[in-house]
Every structure is written in structure tokens, then in C-alpha cells.
Amino acid sequence: MKHSSFFWFVLPSTLLMLAFIAFPIVSVVSQSFYSAHEQVVVQVKNCGPFGCTMETSVDQEATAAIREAEPLGKFAGLDIYTDRNHLAFGEVAAAWVNSDGLPDFGRSLMNLPFYKALGFTLTYTAIVTPLTILLGFFVAIAVNSVAKALKGPTIFFSLLPMIVTPLVGSLILFWMVDARGILGTGLQWLTDDPNLSVKASTGLMWIMLMVYGVWHAAPFAFVVFYAGLQTVNTDTLESAMVDGATRWERIRFVVVPHLLPLVTFVALIQLMDNFRVFEPIVSFQASAHATSLSYAIYNDLGGETRLLSSAAATSVLTIIGIAILLSPVLVRTWRDFDRK
Amino acid sequence: MKTFIKSTVAASALVVAAGAASAACTIDSGRVNIIGNEFPAIQTVATAAAECTGATIEANLTADHQTLNVAGMSGNPAEYTSAIVANSSIVALINEDVIQPLDALVAEYGKDIPQRQLITVDGKVMAVAFMANAQTLAYRSDVLEEVGLAVPSTYDEVLVAAKAIRDAGIMENPVGGPYAAGWNLAQEFNNMYIGHGGEFFEPGTANISINNAQGVATLEMMKALTEYMNPDYLTHDSNGTQAEWEAGNVALMHMWGSRMQNLMDTEGSEPQVYENTKVAGPLMVGDSGVPATTLWWDGWTVAKNISDEDAAATFQALAHAVAPSTLNDTTMDQAVWLIEGYEPAPVSEGVLAAVKAGSKPYPMLPYMGLLHTASGDNIADFLTGKESAEQTLADIEAAYTAAAKEQGYVK
Question: B22-132+297-350, which class in CATH?
Fold first, then answer.
């Protein structure tokens, strides 16, 4: 392709990517280096239906002038990144010095909001991603060997978890594990403990979130692998059969190597998705037990006072996290590309 | 087709009748767009405002109003010409300077609005309140009768009654309240802390000071109460707690005045539950003499970045909406109205008792929202037994201070 036609060919998508991906990121990054101006406050008398009280209020006239001069806010450099609600360098250092051994240090670390969120996010990603791939793979193998007449309905049902909106899917599970729901009561009966509650126990809540994550994402892996299975070379499979390979050996030595590039693809997508885990935490109302980086951003923006810089800093840290997480896969893809 | 025309005619007749029932409201011109929370009393106000003719009147009532109102009022001209807010959420609008003082408009169009409805900040009218709200005790009279106890007036009595009810085998978890982690839980902390006589900040500054004896006592009382709650209490917001109540699983509950009507109506529960649901005043805790609750008002504001014409139209429409003519048989019980002509019903006894008992209003401080978020994020760690009360209070202080520094309230 000529350079000029290539240029015109990619121009529309480049413009769209700049407008909707690059600029917002630039805006978020720059926001994260600024904090609000020092507030000019005055004591004022507030009156209402319940009488009058002396209270503090922001002096609008004084503040307006400062805002006019520097609309972005006060330059804070990396202060937001290093404060207690983010990387908390000071608190981590203090915990390191004062802690009594590694487990104690870990506990202090998990008490800091960013590391608490990171802890759950990484655990969730590390457990849900491989389980999703495994489950999706086995479902694909199973569906592939189902009789032809049953294939359509089986595929439809296998896709259901992905068709159901995350919010609705997790709400259904949320009600089922309620202390008075069918799964919650069943669990109490099984363990013979009437006070056992999934929603009250951090461990069980984590397990439930991860079960939900696998349930919701497995159909995606299934669809990709199922498509891949249709391209497996039948000649190779048949010759393996002639050589006396069992079903397991055929999967192990023919099918899996064939699907390996797809595993990379699914892993890439799932790593990104799982690192952004958010909806289940909201709909399971799990924030008392588990928070994720995305939830932290949502929490900063959802309060009565919006913490824009704090949310921006967490967003940048999330982007950096995803980049680190994806780097092995990306490097591998690059090498494959280079070899060709 | 015939039925369609018929129903249209019937509907228009109804609209005309409704219009005729209340005083006429005619505005010369302008645009009115109201954003607010979604519950019956606010819907009534928005509907009444829409009766006015001459201006285009729209309303967006949603539970997400808080995330929309600042953004929707920051542009010039602002999308929303009015936000319906409470004493906590007006602060964000004042901080961002998106609402205007109403003194001139009150003088021109609002002479009939009684003084007690006007919310003034530094002498300037910033909002017009139309209803009051507070959290008080709801109880089941039949259950208390069965265990032979009087209606509790303090949290210690609640604990005694809860134990009696559990021991008598009537209910396993007789206590309820909106204890969902986040905003609700933080609000319960605020109530209890105020009830213990605590001060949130060092006087005159934004420096937090809750890591003290009152703070510890507050957390310990909350934990003692949770022993008698459904084990899922950290996920029970007002809706969840209401469901527990209506299912007949709870006999003593801390609940919003605006929700008592839902508990006492015939929908959603057995007669035994709704017939015996009674409302009492606010609960006391410790010996501070201040009830463990906060007073709230809901009111409307007018956006700053709009033309004088739109501001006048907005003010007139909403002044009409909170006029005495809005109150009728249907709307009377929807809230504790601050409007002239309001006649208290049994459902509103709690809120009125809270006002009479000298409860404190929720603080209208620019940095209170930051503390509310910080508490909501950390209190669950204590209730689930992960850390000590002192550690939790220290965490709240640290989380608040970091946020307040970012917002420029603390150096």
C-alpha cells in the first residue's frame, strides 16, 4: 500500500482514537498532578427551619479569583500519588519500621485503602483468569462432542451468563446467597450454623465474587475456543486416532497446541477485564469486604464532595497496573511477530 | 380509537380539575428544569411545579441526582435551573458556586413563603425548604407487649428489649437499621457520635477529632446493636431494612421519618406487622442530653448560570409548588411538610419529637461530605472484628485528612 493511501485509510480511526482514548487519558493524567486550591473559609451564620448555627463556609468571592487565575487547581506534583489514600509511601515506610515480622507488615499494608483494593484486584485477576480459560475450554470441548441436533440449544445455554447483564446476574446470585435465600439457607443447613452468612464473611464474599466472575466470563472463552475447535485439522486428528491415541492424548497433543494462540488472546482480554472488576462489588454490596481499584475511583466520584484528583491518580495507577500485567503477553506477541 | 379519545378526554378533564383545585400559576416565559431525588414528596413538588403555564417545565427525578446536579449546573447556561437538595447536599452546590442567592426573587415573588422555610447562609437566602426529616425509632407494639417492656427511649433500653425478645424466642434478630457499608453506616455513626456529645472537628477548623472516648463508645454501641441484627446487616440499606421489617423479622428499628409511611401502609406486609408498627421519638445514648439523630430538611435552589428570565420562572414555579395548595388528602402524609397548613399524622410523630427534643441538624460544613465518605469506608472493619475501635477511628481520621488536604481544607 502506498504511504498516502495508508494515511487516508487510517485517518478516521486515528482521529477517533485520539479524541476518545488519547485526550481523555491526557486529561486524567494532568488532573492527577493538581489538587484543589487552598480553600478560603469564613465563619457564617446559617439559619433554617431548625434554628441558626455558626458554621464554616467557602468564601466564594475570594475563591473565584484564585480559580480564575489557575483553573486547573494547585500544582501538587506527585503528592496525590504518595498520599495515604494512594501509594501511601510514608505509611508503608512507617509500617515497615514498626511492624513485627512480615505478616504484621502485611496486615498494616492491607489496612491502607489502595493496597487493600490492589490486593483484592490482583487475587481476583490471578484466580479468575485461569479458571475462566479452563472452564471455557472444557465447555467448548464438551459442546463440540454433543450430538448435532442438540448443539444449538447447548450453545445458547452456555452463552446465557454472558447475555445476562452483569448487574442483573450478580443481583440474582446476591439474593440467592442472602441469609434467607436458597443458597444462604442451604449453606447454613450444610454447616449447621444458623449465623453463617456469605455477606458477613470476608472469605466467603471473596469466593462468591470470584465464582461470579468465572461464571460470567467463561462463555467468552467458550465462544473463542469453540470457534477455534472448528478449525482443527481433521486429518491430523484421524491420523492420531490411527496411531492409537486416546481422546485425552488427542486433546493434549493436537487440540491444545492448535488453540494456544487463542489462549493468549483470551488471557489478554480477561486480564484487562478482571483487573477492572467493578460491577459485582457494587451489586453484591461487597465494599465492606472487598474493594477494587475501579471501585475506589467510583467511590471518589460518588461522594457528596467529588475527589477528582484522587480519582484521576487511581485511574493512572490502574492504567500502569494493566500495562505491567499485560507486558509478558505483549512481549510474547511481539516476539512471535518478529520471528515471522 | 374511540376508547383512546375517551381516555384522553378523561385525562384532560382530570388535569383541568387538578389545576382548578390549586391556585392558578401563570408565568410570563422562561425555562424550568428541576433535578432531584426520587421519592413521593419530591414527586409531588415537581408535579405541582409543572402545573404552571407559560414556561417550559421539565424535571429529572432520580436517585443519582447527586452525581448529576453539579455537572448539570456548572455549564453556562446551566442545564438544570433548579436542584432539590438536602442540608448535606446543598454544601457541594455552594462549594462549586452554582446556585444563586434568592433574596431579590423572594422579595419579588415569594412574600408568602414563611421565614422558617428560608435557608440562609451568611444572611443570604440560598434555598427554600419544604419538608423535614430525621431518623427515629420504629417498634412493634405487639412484640414489646409480649415481653412486657415499655417503648425504649435509649439505646441501652433497645439492647435490653432485644435480648428479652431473643430470649423469649419471638425473633432471632429483632434489631434493624440502615447499616449498609458506605453512606448509611457512616450516617448511623454520625447519629450515635452526636448522641454521645462528640464534636467532629476541632472548633473553627477542618481538623478532624473523632479518635476519642465518645468515638470509641459510639463504635462499641453500634457493635453491640449489630449482635442483634440479621448477619447480613452490612448490606442492608433503608430498602433492605424495610424488607426485613415487612417480613416480620424485626421489632426495633432506627428508620427515616420519610419511610415510616411505607412501613405502616397495607402494602408489603401482613396485618399483624403493619397494624402494630408504631413510631417513637429519637433514641438517646450516654448522658449528653442530645438525641442520637440528626435533623434534615429538603428544599429547592435556583441555579446561578441562567438568565434572569429563567431564574424568575424557576422561582415562581417552585414557589407555587410549595404553596399550601399543594397539600391535600393524598400528599399530606407523604412527609413532614414545613408548608403552612400541614397537619401532623401519626407517621410523622417521630420527626416532630426529634425536633422538639433538641436534636442537632446535620452539619452544613463544606468538608463534612469527606468525613462521611471516610467513615463509610472504614467502620465495617471494626464491626466485622478486623481491628480495634481506636485503629478504625485512626483510619477514618487519616483517610479524611488525606482527602481534605487534596481539597484544600487542611494544610
Answer: alpha beta
